[in-house]
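Protocol step 4 of 6: structure prediction from sequence.
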Amino acid sequence: MNNTTLQIKFKQRLNKLASNDYDNIECWQIVEAFNKAQIEWVRRQLHGNNIFKEGDEQSKTSIDDLQELLQTAELQGIESDNIYISNSLPNNYLSFKRVSTSAKTECCPPRDMTTYLVEEANIDLILRDPLKRPDYDWGETICTLSGGRVKIFSNSDFKVYKPKLTYYRTPTNIQITGCKDPYTGLESNTDVPCEFKDDIAEILIDEAVAIIAGDITDVSTYQREMAAGQRNT
């Protein structure tokens, strides 16, 4: 969906029928509200509505809606005292999906390891447990997230080799040519449309309009657009 259409739909949802009550909404407000709506919508999809299971892959629809944001990056870092500590997470990192890595030893070729994300609080207990701690023969290891870095644990039998992080990135912020960027204060010299499919863009417009309506205390529009956004999530 191009940004001209997005702005038309935005103002159509916000204005009363046959009126121009809110035509004084500036383009940077549309940009800010839409980008905020993107983040809120994505976080809800990732968490889901089931307290026992994350929502990002609980249905084919969720997988299809979020696949645009899923990407893989090699993890660079150093290994010391049987812990591989990565460099800082990517700048566009939003949410963890998985870590995959291989392990190598002096006598054997690299082999793929099954890597489990565990709680940092339980790491000492896990490393003492012979059934849960990293083991080259079983092809299993563990990792944690701490301080904006990934920690992959090994033992004296193997070294971590070519680790990769699969994660959900932050949605690309839209920009409208000639409009002041609310995040940098600079005027945008390029047009960046919504990267999601048109059906998702329609939902995001409803949510963005609800944000603006809440800011200007238009209660009826806020309630209507919030209901529309939630109904289609």
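Step 5 (inspection) to follow. The chain has six helices and eight strands.
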